[in-house]
Design brief:
single chain, alpha/beta, Rossmann fold, two-stranded antiparallel ribbon, disordered N terminus
Length: 213
């Protein structure tokens, strides 16, 4: 089925992941070239009637912060009660400037802002479930109630929050499409290769914005 704007369906929604200051230039957890996604996402947003954005929203002292664990450094891995957990620099702390959306993000018709990662003991990459894989955010139910069937994703970071959100969208019964050029990765170890492998296994479709805009 074509995914062009001309073939958009009533059940399509754009899910914009974590386009926040801390993930962009000079941010506490800056993704290389993260700012570059903003113009593309603005273009995509103008093509979709329905847009949802997510916002990382951590309390100070969150369990995923390396600073919370004496002797640990960012990007090390610990064993949390729900499995392996990468430790990050402090970022997107509730109410801080770094948690704000990028100043140039311009999608005035956003209908829902979904905050995630606000539970101190559990990190949350996916827009659908916390990292324990059982605690729901409520997004799947919202999408079903609204009649959405296809979820298109863009944002930061490609190999973490976009990846987990896309895979969980499929697990929740939706078709998932990722605008790869409207994302940027953290790129730790094999994270990009793992993302591509998992997308192929789960049927997540990788797109370029030029195929759609």
């Amino acid at each position: 089925m074509s995914t062009s704007a001309e073939k958009m369906m009533r059940g399509d929604v754009l899910l914009v992941i974590d386009v926040q200051r801390d993930f962009c230039t000079l941010g506490r957890l800056a993704v290389q070239d993260g700012d570059a996604v903003v113009p593309l996402i603005n273009q995509l947003g103008s093509q979709f009637q329905h847009v949802i954005v997510t916002q990382d929203w951590h309390p100070a002292g969150h369990s995923s912060f390396a600073s919370t664990h004496p002797g640990k450094r960012p990007y090390e891995t610990i064993q949390a009660f729900y499995g392996p957990q990468t430790l990050w620099p402090d970022h997107c702390i509730q109410g801080s400037p770094g948690a704000e959306f990028h100043a140039d993000l311009d999608i005035p018709h956003v209908e829902l802002i979904l905050r995630k990662g606000f539970r101190t003991a559990i990190d949350s990459y996916s827009a659908f479930t916390e990292n324990d894989k059982t605690t729901p955010t409520g997004l799947a139910g919202y999408l079903r109630e609204c009649g959405f069937r296809r979820v298109f994703l863009a944002g930061l970071a490609y190999d973490y929050c976009v990846r987990f959100s896309a895979v969980d969208a499929v697990r929740a019964g939706f078709e998932a499409f990722v605008f790869e050029d409207a994302c940027r990765p953290v790129n730790l170890a094999t994270s990009i290769a793992d993302t591509h492998r998992e997308f192929a296994e789960m049927g997540v479709v990788r797109l370029a914005t030029a195929e759609f805009v």
